[in-house]
Amino acid sequence: MGDNITGEEFPCSLIISVPLPNHRLALAALRALQVDAELSPLVHRSFSLTSTALAVEPPQDKRPNGSYSAISKFIPVSDDGEGAEELKTVLCTEYRATTNRMLRVAVNGFMESLGVVLSVMEELDVDVLMKNENT
């Protein structure tokens, strides 16, 4: 995410973490979703791969606009040494928007695209097919 994006300009935010079976599939999802630029200048999106899980604590304080703020924090998984890249199996997408409506519209489009990417992986990926045959 760019350094010039402030919480005041883009007060509405959401982090979506999607765990995938392995690094190869996580990287493929990242590359497939990254090519489509956000259509609105009122929404900013960034992608990353991580080996951490995101924990969100229950809503804490009600904001003046009626929404609740939740505290999210990353729980690190040790990724020192060789193969650290292979541990990055969680696709993290961070959205920031000027309004809740713009955030909702952008996330709805993302979820639709994510559904297509995951469906293609399920139908065509060799590893996923082999796993389904063994169960």
Question: Any overview of this molecule?
Answer:
The chain has about 140 residues and is α+β, with helices and mostly antiparallel strands. Helices cover about 35% and strands about 25% of the residues. It has 3 helices and 7 strands. It has a 3-stranded antiparallel beta sheet with strand order 1-7-2. A two-stranded antiparallel ribbon has the order 3-6. Strand 4 (about 60) and strand 5 form a beta hairpin. Helix 1 crosses helix 2 (about 100-125). The chain is elongated, with a radius of gyration of 17 Å. The termini are far apart. The model has no long low-confidence stretch (mean pLDDT about 80).
Low-pLDDT runs: none
Percent of residues in beta strands: 25-35%
Q: How many β-strand runs? A: 7
N- and C-termini, Cα separation = 40 Å
Mean pLDDT over the residues: 80
From the spread of the alpha carbons, the general shape counts as elongated
Keywords:
elongated, 3-stranded antiparallel β-sheet, 135 residues, alpha+beta
